[in-house]
Design a protein that fits this description.
single chain; alpha/beta; Arc Repressor Mutant, subunit A; 44% helix; binds calcium ion
């Protein structure tokens, strides 16, 4: 699970958040004011920060702005005010999400899970991306990430952006099987839940455009797809 820093000056709420998040298996540290939070992050950066807006000493907005100068971890802001200006300001200083007090613990846990899931996805994305912008070659297939172009036997392929992303993912990870859920997250983002058919349709069109070479994208029964050059 994740390391989480809770920054909240109300002791009861801080402890309640700690209890709930520990029950999810997270490792929790607590701060009750902005300067302490900044020091704790600089000593050992957590994977997520839950940050109250109204804090003594240094308010949550300033803390968020300062954290963002050096850190990319998700920040969920807590605010007692629901005005639109709060929301806009929070997102402007780099918060990823915000919750208006009073909020339910289930809501907080759901937002936390979503934020951590995005981080994991980004990490996997970075891992699976080709190292650098070098053209990937598999036999007659050439995929040029920098120019967003692909060709077979020197003939450029007319691919949609999503087809190109799929082909690049396969070409950069030969032999690796990808399930549909992963491909949906990777190519369409989280908002595209439940669209298994879209993946199948895109793969079918991509195979068609690759001609005979398209057979090298094989179906992994019950799982998804794999590219075997
Ligand atoms: Ca407060």
């Amino acid at each position: 699970m994740a390391s989480i820093l809770i920054v909240e000056d109300e002791p009861a709420l801080n402890d309640l958040l700690r209890t709930e998040l520990e029950a999810e298996g997270h490792v929790i540290r607590q701060a009750r004011d902005g300067p302490t939070a900044l020091r704790m992050v600089s000593e050992d950066a957590p994977q997520l920060v839950i940050l109250d807006w109204m804090l003594p000493g240094l308010d949550g907005l300033s803390v968020c702005r300062q954290l963002r100068q050096q850190h990319l971890m998700p920040i969920i802001m807590l605010t007692a005010r629901s005005e639109e200006v709060d929301r806009v300001l929070g997102l402007e200083v780099g918060a990823d999400d915000y919750l208006v007090k009073p909020f339910g613990m289930r809501e907080l846990l759901a937002r936390t899970r979503a934020a951590l899931r995005r981080v994991q996805l980004e990490a996997r994305r970075a891992q699976l991306s080709p190292a650098g912008d070098e053209t990937i070659v598999h036999g007659p297939l050439q995929v040029d990430p920098a120019a967003h172009r692909a060709s077979i036997g020197g003939t450029e392929l007319a691919l949609t952006p999503k087809e190109f992303e799929l082909l690049l993912l396969f070409a950069a990870n030969p032999g690796r099987a990808f399930n549909r859920e992963f491909l949906i997250e990777r190519i369409w983002g989280e908002a595209y839940e439940g669209f298994d058919r879209a993946v199948d349709n895109h793969i079918r069109r991509l195979r068609g455009k690759l001609g005979d070479f398209g057979e090298k994208i094989t179906t992994v029964w019950g799982l998804g797809y794999r590219f075997i050059p």
